[in-house]
Design brief:
- The chain is mainly beta.
- The chain folds into three domains: 118 residues; 152 residues, Jelly Rolls; 119 residues, Sandwich (Jelly Rolls), CATH 2.60.120.260.
- It has five helices and 34 strands.
- Strand 17 and strand 18 form a beta hairpin.
- Helix 1 runs antiparallel to helix 5.
- About 4% of the residues have low confidence.
Length: 477
Amino acid sequence: MTGHFPRLRLLVVVLAAVGLHHVHAAPIDQLRYRRPIAVEASAGEELVAVGLDAEVAAVTETGFTDLRVIDGAGHEVSRILRRASVVKMRSVRRSFPAQQPRLKPLPGGGLEIELTIDPEKHPVSIDGFRIETPLRNFEQAVQVQRLDEAGAWKPIGDDTLLFDYSQYMDTRQLDVSWPKAQRAPAGGTWRITVDEPTIEQQSTLSEVVRTLEGSAETSRKEKTIVERQPFRIDSIQAWHVDDAAEVKAADGLEMPIAAFRVEEEPKEKRTRVRVASDRQPITALRLSVADRNFGRPARVEAPQQATRNREVGARPPQILGAARVHRIDLRGISSEALAITIPESRYADYEIVIDNADSPPLDITGVTAVGPAYEVVFLARPGKAYRLAYGAGSTEDGPFAAPQYDTVAIDAALTAGKVPLEGALGAADEVAVEPVERPWLARLFGNPWLIGGTILFLAVLLGFSLFAAAKRLDTKE
């Protein structure tokens, strides 16, 4: 059997040579496009985020593996790829209890509440007070004043009506506020005046006085019993509103599509909507339909012409997602679902297939693509120019591999909540790309016909050798 091992080793070498056709990192000179990145001038290193638009998506590899950030000298710069973020400002209300309020009843039945806010403990300007009370069904007028530097009481805001209308509706107002233009400095002494701190509630019972002569009633008087109770205050909360930045991933955005075409297939009883995209990331396709009151099964397919190196019709289309699209609008019942969700995809073409059965086709008026936006984030140094390089110029050696960078500084800054500066992409310039000249051995073993023929020949040779060896063993026995 030892004589057959050289043949076996030759087969292993040939099979290993197929591995020469592998993914590789994209050299800069093999990327066809350059776009300048406009960055605000800064005194030090800054995080910069650059959004990837449809022009970039149309010519890049899946996963943006051929995307690079380069400096003015053409050197690669460490970057990360992530879903784009949007910064939204939201109002956050914060409050704290007023400590040790001082109460003073007034001769006319009013009540004054004075309180002092320590500016060291609460170094913010307040926007109002919340007067907590357990009472229901009331109205109460309140005024707020603040002691100024001259020792005079200065009104803050307008008179406010606190109320609770629970007997009619769940409506309740316990806040006293004023415009931001009247914000006073932090801390200070405040006075809250409550006009006539009582409410009148009519009892559900009435007092009845009857006058009798013998067993006969000669007169009757009814008197409504009115219960008076104080305006009880459980606590007073001082509050202020901060504008907080909230960073969220830009997802579920509408993506532009190049075109769509509706084709009816009467024999198959279905409608086929052909959608052409710019290869932007898509997670759903949403139909616009003029009809009402319908429900049809639908699916999204990736046709074979959207798959690289595949002939049309070589295999059945790949079903990316399915759903039942519907719209119901009848006698107050309203429901609509016209989107078909798919895994994140970057095909150039899609097909939406709607099964009509025996119902008439729907009037499709438009298609909207939905998906996430992506951006690259990198560290920009002051005085440096940066460009985005992308677009695989040669795929003879297979797809590009994603680069592996040291991004610890970028990750740490983003984790700490650092919001990157927004970079803007300029117009694209196309550069000449020379085909990569591979070594003759790689070209030789990269020929699929040669590899297939060699493997088949060696397999037959190995089988014949094993058969001959087994026959010799039988003869010896």
